[in-house]
Specification:
Elements lengths: L3 E5 L5 H10 L3 E5 L3 H11 L2 E2 L3 H5 L4 E4 L4 H8 L14 E4 L5 H13 L3 E4 L2 E2 L1 H7 L2 E5 L3 H14 E6 L5 H29 L4 H9 L6 H11 L9 H17 L6 H11 L5
Parallel strand pairs: 1-2, 1-4, 2-3, 4-5, 5-6, 8-9
Antiparallel strand pairs: 7-8
């Protein structure tokens, strides 16, 4: 593939996502805050690493970012070592981090001022989806930007959708997280009731999977939850962070929601890593 790309952030999601790109023939340059991890990635997949986001992005046609939160994203975008300092005109910057919609709009303006294109494109599918190249991608930005990166999205995505202007991808991800959190809250309490009642969890899971309670979480996490196994690559702290963005957005729109009531219950009762 005649394309040069940079991937910034090699966590549990970014590491395999960048690997899929390199395997597909994209010329990859990677950056990670812990340089040893970037060097390990190069040893496994090839490509090259650079010590700063600016150097990683310097010659890239597409820059992909997947870090932790709003401040982590700002730290790799701005400043003398930030990717914006070396962004070449016409390059597309894709932020796969789950952030606030306000940050996505801020980044869109900053990238546009540098002559580039921007997409906020959070993903769903967890660590397994990243490893297997089966992520769902929710994008906000322009059709032009999306068309320029579709070949990249094919490397690790099973589907993607442009939802509107910058920030729309993050708003869709917020909806996704609210739905998941609600399902997990109900599932955890249902499993607690089943265990207290002496029911065999595997049988309960199979029965419920054939009815209206069916969900990905039920099929993939009910049994592990009952067994006290919670480490599946996505820490509960990240879900708490994501739901914080959801609450901020709801409050800005003056929604009369009851999220705060179950938000703390979710943290207390659902000790799950999804």
């Amino acid at each position: 593939m005649n394309m040069k790309a940079a991937f910034i952030g090699l966590g549990v999601m970014g590491y395999p996502m960048a690997g899929h790109c390199q395997a597909a023939g994209i010329d990859m340059v990677v950056y990670n805050r812990t340089q040893a991890k970037a060097l390990a990635w190069v040893e496994q997949y090839g490509g090259e690493s650079q010590p700063t986001p600016a150097l990683a992005a310097k010659a890239a046609d597409v820059i992909l970012v997947c870090v932790g939160n709003d401040e982590d994203v700002r730290s790799v975008f701005f400043g003398d070592d930030g990717l914006l300092s070396s962004l070449k005109p016409g390059a597309v910057v894709v932020d796969h981090t789950t952030t606030s919609a306000d940050l996505a709009r801020e980044l869109d303006l900053a990238v546009t001022e540098k002559g580039g294109l921007f997409l906020d494109a959070p993903v769903s599918g967890g660590q397994a989806g990243a490893v297997n190249g089966q992520l769902s991608i929710m994008a906000g930005g322009t059709q032009e930007a999306l068309e320029k990166v579709e070949a990249v999205f094919k490397c690790y995505g099973k589907g993607w959708q442009l939802l509107g202007e910058a920030g729309s991808g993050q708003l869709c991800k917020m909806v996704n997280q609210v739905c998941i959190a609600g399902i997990l809250q109900g599932l955890s309490e249902g499993i607690a009731l089943a265990k207290a009642s002496g029911l065999e969890i595997e049988t309960v899971q199979k029965v419920l999977a054939g009815g209206a309670a069916q969900s990905w979480q039920l099929e993939n996490r009910a049994i592990t939850m009952a067994d006290g196994k919670f480490d599946f690559g996505f820490a509960i702290d990240w879900m708490v962070k994501d739901l914080g963005y959801c609450l901020q957005e709801a409050q800005s729109k003056k929604l009369k929601c009851q999220w705060r009531r179950w938000f703390n219950r979710f943290i207390k009762n659902c000790k799950l890593r999804v």
